[in-house]
Amino acid sequence: MTTRQKLSFAGAVILATGFFVLFVGGGSRHAIGLVLRPMAETFGWGRSTLGTAVALFLFVSASCMFITGLLADRFPLRAILGGGLLVSAVGIGLMSLATEPWHVYVLYGIVFAIGNGIASITPVGVMITRRFPERAGFANAFAISGMGLGQLLIISALAAVLVTIGWQSVFIWLGAINLILFPLVMWAVSQGEARRPGDDAATAVEPSGLTTREALKTKNLWLLLAVYAVCGFQDFFVSTHIVAFAQDTGVATLLAGNLLAFMGLAGLLGVIAAGVWSDRFGPIGATIACFVVRIAIFSLVLINKEIISVTAFALLFGMTYWITAPLTVVFVRNAFGSRSLGALSGMVTMVHHMCGGIGAYLGAAVFDAHGSYDASFMLMLGCSVLAIVLTAGLARTPEPVRIHS
Question: In whole angstroms, what separates CA 329 from the centre of its chain?
């Protein structure tokens, strides 16, 4: 095998590894939305109980993403991703035994959150950007499409499981899937990261640019954090509550569960388009387009809640759901360089997920208080307008990246 063939093999392995880690992580994370209503009804809980668990999950996993970003700048990614999968398997698998709210808070909100935050988009993004520096947008979009496909295939399969043998089996299957992936990832990353003659010259990226402390002093970083805060606030509100909302409007349980799954399929189109667009024109336009679509669909669901409108809302929102994910490392690298790529992309993702927790909880609290999601939809509509303004501000304030020798 020639050096070039070895590099191509290593790159393919890295890309496939990132895809499957996010495939399993994406499907596992969204399962709570699938079981929200039947689990709450089984124990007589309010939806805000599980909404609180989702908020805790997002806060903990987001914190772990930032910490993992710091570690990814310094340590081998095999141990990071493998460890995350093991912890995920334990946390999500034991959810099948939960009978009290505190069980859910500990198992889903803390244990699974730690694992899912470690084996997440942050180390995967760093791993792929190092291997494909010239096509970072498309390569990350391909890997992140695994999240959408995982949401489609895993949630679709688990929706059938839910209908036939109950919500406990959903968590058992998810634990098994995470456990099975562990040895495969340990082998694959060791192959993909192996140093062979010529690898360093062909693939290494000099760690140049701003430090985390220097980036925090720039306007661009704070605007970027604000844009991703709004995005996460909307993303996890919808993904947590879309199945319950659809059921509330008269959609059958199996179809409602499949709406969440098919949001993942729609997301494949959006994320690949965003990656290609980003490599050619930069990430700003794709981000603005994401929020323009959201203005339209939040308006739609406020006006009309027929089954066809709810379905259109779910699919079109799904198309926007992953758009900003592959753009994170592109935004960070373009504005601040690669010196602190893991830490800064982890920070942006952390803010995205923490605000997602607020969105998930707020949606549940609003529903419990008013018996409707309308007030939440109105808030999300206003947030879309705000995000466009913030993104436009980001486009108007380029800041040069200082290079450290």
Answer: 13
pLDDT of 278-335, one tens digit each? 878 888 999 999 999 999 999 999 999 888 999 999 999 989 987 888 888 889 888 8
The answer to whether residue 405 sits within a structural domain is: no
- For the chain, the average pLDDT equals 83
Q: How many CA atoms lie within 13 A of 237 on its CB side?
A: 26
What's the CATH code of the domain at 65?
1.20.1250.20
Residues 201 and 327 sit within 8 Å (Cβ to Cβ): no
Contact between residue 72 and residue 12 where contact means Cβ atoms under 8 Å apart: no
Distance CA 46, CA 50 (A): 8
Task: Please answer whether residues 232 and 354 qualify as being in contact, where contact means their C-beta atoms are separated by less than 8 angstroms.
Answer: yes
Triad 85, 87, 93: Cα angle to 5°: 95
Please tell me the distance from the alpha carbon of residue 275 to that of residue 142, in angstroms, as a whole number: 8
Q: How does residue 193 score in pLDDT terms, banded at 50, 70 and 90? A: low
**Exposure b/e, 336-352, CB count within 10 A at least 16 = b:** bbbbbbbbbbbbbbbbb
* 107-152 per-position pLDDT tens digit: 999 999 999 999 988 888 888 877 887 777 788 888 888 877 777 7
Closest CA relative to residue 117, chosen from 164, 75, 70:
70
Give 337's strand partners: 209
Global pTM value: 0.73
In a domain, 402, yes or no: no
Q: Side-chain half-sphere of 402: how many Cα atoms within 13 Å? A: 9
CA separation for the pair 405, 402 (Å, rounded):
10
- How many domains is the chain partitioned into structurally? 1
Report residue 282 as tokens. Answer: 């930069």
Residue 401 CA to residue 207 CA, distance in Å, equals 12
Domain range for residue 161?
3-396
Chain position carrying tokens 């996460």: 232
The span from the first CA to the last CA of the chain, in angstroms, equals: 36
User: Which of the 8 DSSP states describes residue 73?
Assistant: T
374: burial class by Cβ within 10 Å (0-12, 13-18, 19+)? middle
Give the tens place of pLDDT for each residue, 41-67: 888 888 778 878 888 887 898 889 888
Q: What is the dihedral of CA 76, 29, 368, 237, to 10 degrees?
A: 80
